[in-house]
Each structure stands twice: as C-alpha cells, then as structure tokens.
Design brief:
This protein has two helices and no strands. By secondary structure, it is mainly alpha-helical. It has one domain.
C-alpha cells in the first residue's frame, strides 16, 4: 500500500509540472482522501 501511495505521489509531482495535469491531480487528491480510511484499516 505504501509503495502504491509513493507511486501516486511521484505521478502527482510529474503532473504538477504540466499545466493540463492540474485537474487530474485534484481528482487524485480526492481519491487519496477517500482511500485514507482504507489505508488506516490495513495498517492496524
């Protein structure tokens, strides 16, 4: 799970350098927020 999140973050960093990637990055941030409870549950 951590590996996947790191991959998402590096992907987000790459997108942030591209103006057209801004919307997608916002969507990824929302998805990440939705996944937070899942990640917390998998940790415990």
């Amino acid at each position: 799970m951590e590996f996947l999140r790191d991959k998402l973050h590096s992907c987000g960093d790459w997108l942030s350098r591209r103006r057209e990637g801004r919307q997608l990055r916002g969507r990824m941030k929302e998805t990440s927020k939705l996944l937070d409870p899942v990640r917390a549950a998998s940790r415990s």
